[in-house]
Amino acid sequence: MSWLTEYLETIRGFGKNARLWLVVTAVSSVGWAIFNLIFNLYLHSLGCRQDFIGLLNGLPSLVVLLVGLPLGMAADRRGYLVFLRAGAVFAVASGLGLALARSPAQLLVFSLLAGIGSALSWVIGAPFMMTICREEERVTYFALSSAVQLAMGFAGSLLGGELPGLFARWWGGLPSDVLPLRGAMVAAAVCSALAALPLLVMHESGAGRPVSGRPLPRGRQELVLFLKLLTPAALVAFGAGAMVVFFQLFFHLRFQLTPSAIGVLFAFSSVSTAVATLVSPALARRFGKVRTVVWTELASIPFLVLLAYSYDLRWVIVAYYLRQALMNMAGPVQHIFVLEQVRPDQRATLSSLSAMLGSLGRGGLGPIVSGFLQVRGGFSAAFTLTAVTYVLGAALFWAFFRDAEKTPAGEAAA
Questions:
Q1: pLDDT per 10-residue tile (average), the chain, 414 residues
Q2: CA distance linking residue 402 with residue 174, whole number of Å
Q3: Burial environment of residue 194 by CB neighbours within 10 A (0 to 12, 13 to 18, 19 or more)
Q4: What's this model's pTM, rounded to 2 decimal places?
């Protein structure tokens, strides 16, 4: 009860921008969950091969790799809100474009536009959140934001699973046909448009413009710190890219699940992960941020291996839920720890570098390498690669920062 009371008291203290950002997170999460569920199935219905699907999933992240750093540096100097608004515009345009594209070339073009929107949202989101809540609120706010994202992902996954069937009944055909899946893609783009509306009433002065300065690392010590902060996350992102973006096809091709069944599966996964995420602040207070991150990530590995090699749907579903919850529950804690290690005027720059490396792995090399492995060795080979990179990432994070929490965050940033 004291844990719940603390949560409620902290939430009541949030300012206007913090509350509005939670609304943005909630609505956009519905649209993202629909898109995440439908996109690969839609591409498959168009006749795209898995290697081309991997390329389309990878292109947005490759764009982040190219433009993330200049965007982050600009945001550290000019403020975050204008970049978030521009990202919303690109997200809506690219979502509609991907839904209505009729050729591989058009799909490639709108995937590139989606990458620009992703660069703006991935790079700016976390540093913006650091400025709209007080220091003592951060762990709770990040965890709550992640839980809202996952909980609304539950609704989006359920909705995304049902929409193709609904459109198929209206227009004829099967839920796995092109037209019903295209209708669901349009619905996801509409959610992105609705999510952009709260950004229009937010104010930069309330967001807390970052202090101007030199956002890039100064000297060897800061450069080494940046490398230590970025390398473990890059390895984990590569592993996620080899697996997470293919979960829809994994359940569809290995177990012949329908879009509706996959939607239900994804929805309840979001709920379990949201509940686990709300526990992460308590774990961080008791054991420290670094231990919480490393222990939860390593605990997910046995379930990942079971997911890769089991052909029993019941065990695979259990493994899927536990892997999702354990691997993702400490994400907000890790974000805060990483951003606390650098100066305030470096946060968007560090976030951009993290997004760039993450996009290279999660959305670029990860899906491309995974698609190559799947064509030749199936899902088991691709998921094994993920397990190896997760272990390496967690081990490096522990090696670099196991003693970091002995020093107060302010002193570490200085």
A1: 64 80 90 86 80 77 75 76 88 89 85 82 78 76 82 82 85 77 89 90 59 63 86 86 80 81 78 81 83 91 89 90 87 83 76 73 73 78 88 92 61 40
A2: 53
A3: middle
A4: 0.69
Tokens for 20?
Answer: 């509005």
Number of neighbours of residue 261 by Cβ within 10 angstroms: 14
CA-to-CA distance for 310 and 319, rounded, in angstroms? 10
Q: Give the Cα separation of 290 and 50 in Å (integer).
A: 37
The CA distances from residue 146 to 191, 274, 280, 282, in Å, are 18, 7, 11, 15
Q: Which of 20, 32, 117, 110 is nearest to 71 (CA)?
A: 117
Domain that holds residue 349: 2-413
Is residue 1 exposed (0-12), middle (13-18) or buried (19+ Cβ within 10 Å)?
A: exposed
Tokens representing residue 229 in the block: 């902060």
Write out the DSSP string of 336-361.
HHHHHTS-GGGHHHHHHHHHHHHIII
Give the dihedral of Cα atoms 130, 133, 135, 139; nearest 10 deg.
Answer: -80
Structure tokens at 371: 């698609």
pLDDT of residue 18: 85
DSSP letter assigned to residue 154: H
- Between CA 17 and CA 198 the distance in angstroms is 9
The pLDDT of residue 14 is: 77
Where do we find the tokens 């060795």?
377
pLDDT at 7: 64
> Domain with 116 in it: what CATH number?
1.20.1250.20
Token pair for residue 315?
A: 């065990």
- Cβ neighbours of 135 (radius 10 Å): 11
Contact 325, 273 (CB under 8 A): yes
pLDDT for 6? 66
The total domain count for the chain is 1
Question: Distance between CA 30 and CA 58 in Å, rounded?
Answer: 22
pLDDT of residue 302: 92
Helix, coil or strand: residue 61: helix
The string of pLDDT tens digits covering residues 209-247 is: 545 456 666 778 888 888 898 889 888 888 887 887 788
Q: Which stretch of DSSP H or E encloses residue 362?
A: none
Q: In this structure, what token pair is assigned to residue 377?
A: 């060795």
